[in-house]
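Appendix B, example 12.
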Amino acid sequence: MLINTNLSAQNSATLLQQSSKMLAQSLQRLSSGSKITSPADDSAGLAVSMKLTAQMAQNTAAESNINDAVSFNQTQDGYLQQVDTALSRMSELSISAQDVTKTTADRALYEQEFTALSSYVKDVSTKSFNGVSLFNGATLNVTTDSNGATFSNVGVDLTTATYTTALNDNVSSVSGAQTALGDITKAINQLASDRANLGANEETLGYYSNQLTTLNNNLSAANSQITDVDVAQESTNYAKYNILVQSGTAMLAQANQLPQSVLKLLS
């Protein structure tokens, strides 16, 4: 029987230390909701999780870009709806000014309204969205995924000859009104085409947005399998390690009492 070296106590202490470490780890997992509380828990899983998390953040940023582009297109179309109303009224004025029963003074009144509407459309062509011109015709490349791929968002140009020619016409005479009618009709046809392009832009961007949302959901599910703790399983582990710590503590106390039996030999 040995006094200086208590192997039973040392073994019990080692096992207790291991159980205590596992209990502490289980507590960390349950309190954090993550089964990777340090790189040592799952180094490979942590690396994969970091990549998935980064890609989700990039996708979220790309989706924000897409939503901004959709807002840009919607703002454009909001203005173009009013331009459509203005051009339609200008076409009416062009017809009315061709009435042979109207006097020059009557046509002057039509011209006054025609000019006011023309000025309104010209003013719309100068509008911007967050400092970016709405109607200069520029095609904007919108980022659509985490790899930096882009979608060409076709622009609208209200300064093209089709529009400017019509806006610079007048209806102060019958011949002028006839010319204006033809030019306004062309402008309305161009406007219809431009609004159709905006609709196509919005529809396509909507597909990209839905695609990113679905992708992020799938990436989140994959990341969850790697990092999220299974509470039911971990609760079972916690109960097991808690019992091992308590029993280990009790057995260490018993092991420390063993050398005292030597006193019986000396009495």
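The chain has seven helices and four strands. The longest strand covers residues 140-143.
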